[in-house]
Amino acid sequence: MKISSLLLNPQFLLVFTVTILHRVSSDSVLALCELSVRDHNKLYNYSLTSPLPKFPHGILSEDGFYKVAANGTVLWFQLCSTMIFNHDPPMCVGCKDCGGPSRCGMGCSALVSNQIDGYPVCTTLGRPSSMLIDVLDKKSPHTGIIVKMSNNGPQRNCSLSVTVICNSNGVQGPQTFETVGFCDYTTQLKHPSGCAKIISSHGKGLGWFGTFMVIIICLFGVYLLAGTIYRYFFLHIRGIDAIPNLEIWASLPHRVQGLFMSLVRRFRGPSHGYRSSYSPVNF
Question: Concatenated DSSP letters for 54-105?
């Protein structure tokens, strides 16, 4: 088959376009799963999808989803990706915007099932494209992060906030969850991906005052060098006298000392035994 005929094939164009869009969507989601926070002289880098020695998929659940249930309510979610169900899929109605009845839960990143009139009804809580990441405690960035997903539904807006606690020893899945408001949920898990890679940077730089002083010193050095070269080659002045304004620089320490002593006398007052010019004198 020629390349030109292949490019004109509608089926090929459809597959090619879907592949490109999926690749772009995946790259954008991976970018959302990274966070860098600077605290004093340290830079905290989080990358939830970076492979770890015991977790090649990072924070992504190898089952394809995390699951937690309480009081008849079931919560499914996956971080940094849509969910995949090879077993134990959601069995609930109202899953149109999250994969449909045959692929329920596989079109979003968070789903909840509530018992309404005796039937389990699904509600989409989040999508990978809406994910936001922030540190758990700005004063202690190493403790972990918060991942928030949301979904703008036709009737109400829902969300799921997952607190990822730094735990370098292993993974502890979500044990329970809380409902905040009408359709907002929070849960917590522990994972090594919640631990940041810390980069230490010594010093905070010169700052504006330090930069200003460096500029002044450099200009002063250029002035001395240019003046010395001019006096040496054009005025034929040799030795230490080639330095411009040598008398001023030589008397500068004495002037500084005199200014310092004047300030000391002004703040301390006249010393013991010092007689003012206006003191009465007995003859």
Answer: S-TTTTS-TTS-EEEEETTEEEEE-SSS----SSS----B--GGGTTTTTTT
